[in-house]
Amino acid sequence: MAYQTLIVEIEDSVALIRLNRPEALNALNSELLGELADALKQLDDNDKVRCIVLTGSEKAFAAGADIKEMSEKSFVEMYTSDFFGSEADSLLRTRKPIIAAVAGYALGGGCELAMMCDFIICAENAKFGQPEINLGVVAGIGGTQRLTRFVGKSKSMDMHLTGRFMDATEAERSGLVSRVVPVAQLVPEALAAARKVASKSAVATMVVKECVNRAYETTLREGVLFERRVFHALFATEDQKEGMSAFLEKREPQFRDK
Ligand code: CO8
Questions:
Q1: Is residue 181 part of a domain?
Q2: Which of 16, 39, 120, 150 could serve as a FRET partner for 56 with CA atoms 20 to 30 Å apart?
Q3: pTM above 0.95?
Q4: What value does the mean pLDDT of the chain take?
Q5: Residue of 21, 23, 25 to mutate, ligand 1, most atoms within 8 A of C-beta
């Protein structure tokens, strides 16, 4: 998988995607987002891949949408091209788990991209922000909605209205990230987490993803009902029998994704 703006490696059932536009702190332009959508689709279709890690550099996960690319566009150009809408939608269609490993800046579209992943592990130097207000605009790929669900209204308003950055400690305290690790440990820790996810039943991991995401999209009652139905449905899988037998027989399960 050869790309201009990404480096993709696959090892032990885990794919690592590195955003690679160092000259622009991994700013998200059409080329990068198009390549990312393509890579995710291919990895989702690749039976050897069971979990995906998305990362940037030590300085920047991504410093936002590419301001140079956007600055001269008109409303009609943005609207008719559905600027970044289809790329964002295609990221969300990925059924395999995606872990964001964030070091340095995750700003604007970069913060939004991290939040579209399934969970975020960040390095101690991470800085999250939605500074679009400084450019006279607003977040455009879900920031006002997702950050609010992650950290609550008051902190989300603060971030969006002042454009201030949130450091790793605050991000963990606020529930935006699941873990904070030293910079050098970021990718190894994310890959280790991905290998752990990859060792589970792929059917069950897809179901977990659907269930947790449903919590953001429906009422509690409907979400709990959905969970109950898919919990029951998993009893139609061999992996459920294997997982429970392995526990009772005090051995490691051998999941076969069936
Ligand atoms: N776009 C384009 N280029 C960028 C971006 C960006 N978002 N961020 C950094 N760069 C470039 C700089 O222009 C610079 O390039 P050059 O060397 O050619 O001048 C290079 O990266 C290095 O950047 P700095 O010299 O500025 O590095 P610093 O360490 O001094 O500062 C910062 C780092 C604080 C990250 C600073 O670069 C910055 O503030 N960047 C902009 C952050 C920002 O405003 N992000 C939000 C962008 S808007 C957005 O994301 C909207 C999302 C929704 C769009 C979806 C559409 C539907």
A1: yes
A2: 150
A3: yes
A4: 97
A5: 25
